[in-house]
Amino acid sequence: MKEFKKFISKGNVMEMAVGLIMATYFGAIVKSLVNDIIMPPIGLMLGGIDFAEMKYVIQPAVAESAEGVADGVAEVAISYGVFINTIITFVVVAWAIFMVVKAYNRMKERMEKKEEEKPAAPPEPSKEEVLLTEIRDLLKK
């Protein structure tokens, strides 16, 4: 139990958990962006097509038979419009992650350059120099 507490309290685990939660909600935002903002104008430009409704029906749904008995057969369809939305969502997420990683790498490079540009501290004087400085100071007095 102690080992588990030590593992769970490490910063990396907490950072990973926060990252996972953020990624989940980021994905939800991107999905909404694609479905609610990007796809409607694209569908309008293509003649009022709603990609979410695009599908190839293999077997239509049947609610009742001719005798009035409810069969409850569900529709069997290939929803390729939803698949197109998912592909576009993936491309948007991949682009956003690419931009974040690119910005992070640029920031990291700038920080490394600043560290390299910092002037080095002057070297410590040698023992001989310290001794000569003390003799000089004594002679001045």
Helix/strand-derived category reads mainly alpha
Main β-sheet description? 2 strands, antiparallel
Low-confidence stretches: none
Tally the structural domains. Answer: 1
Output the keywords.
single chain, 141 residues, Non-ribosomal Peptide Synthetase Peptidyl Carrier Protein, Chain A, two-stranded antiparallel ribbon, 4 helices, 67% helix
Protein model, in words:
The protein is mainly α. The chain has one domain (2-140): Non-ribosomal Peptide Synthetase Peptidyl Carrier Protein, Chain A (Orthogonal Bundle), CATH 1.10.1200.120. It is built from four helices and two strands. The chain has helices at residues 2-8, 11-45, 80-117, 127-140; strands at 56-59, 76-78. The protein has a two-stranded antiparallel sheet with strand order 1-2. The chain starts with a helix and ends with a helix. The model has no long low-confidence stretch (mean pLDDT 83).
